[in-house]
Input
Amino acid sequence: MTDLLSLTPDGARAALSPWLAARAQPPYRLKQIVSRLWQRPIGSWEDATDLPAALRAELGAAFPLGRLALDTAQQSRDGTEKFLWKLADGEAIESVLIPEGKRRTLCISSQVGCALGCVFCATGRMGFRRNLTTAEIAAQVRELVLRDPATPPTNVVFMGMGEPLLNWDAVDAALTILNHPDGLGIGARHITVSTVGILPSLAQLARRPEQFRLAVSLHAPSAELRHELMPIEKKYRLPDLLQALGQFRRRVTLEYVLIGGKNDSLAQADELASLARPLGALVNLLPLHPGGAPDLMPSSRAQMLAFERRLNSRGVEAVLRRSRGLDISAACGQLRVELEARRKVRPQEHARVE
Ligand code: SF4
Output
């Protein structure tokens, strides 16, 4: 059975055209049906009341629409909402919706768990379970449109569970669905792919013509410290990553989680400035989420502000972000980790990065 929600709008048209022709349907049906996938989504073909009942039944049998089942939703005092979705095979993923004025940014997952084991990350401790399909990635946005069609997500960031560039084929197609006018229609500049820097897929992302934004998890100003915090440094080294970013045709954001006594000294701010300035990069400074890593301490507020000022004084645009949703476990992977602990699900063996 073809899963239309795993296909780009062009792919869905290609799958549907011969099927409709075989049923002698008028040509306008194709547009009508494709519009119900993403533009005016429906939960099931039964809800597409602009289509004849017999056709709805046939569509339901030939092209069932997969859904994500909402397991848990939590809302923080600051308005941040966190969703834990159950997948068809019983796995779970999460998305976080962050409202800010007119902007509604949805942080989505690209894998169940993550193999990369960054020491400050709850998802990393969970290990890798599997890649998400294109449909499961894009459905995190689609489900929220179905929930509240009047206020859909305006921005999407791939900063939930998983490393998107280790699931490139699915993410590549999901980017098309999110951005395409016949898909979810979200502007490329409102879609951010966040990565630790998987160089081969980074090159593929760079080749796409759309202006998708790129955020790179740096978290350390030297290869030595990065190696301690992020095991991926073994495979894709900081100097090679910086060189690849230098060739990226768009402005890059560097993500930097401030960890007390680890990477938050003013000397390290100077080192970071010397990497960020030649790239013209924006630096996002993030407070360490207290539940993200039991052995690490967040930087003090005073130190975070001093670090930000130091970068600015060195000619680097740096912004200290507020930690959103502190009362609802909004660090990546944390809600799932907490629920599993409560349910006593035995974690699977951690996958390794070669
Ligand atoms: S920070 Fe990102 S890449 Fe690192 S372990 Fe967590 S999910 Fe994986």
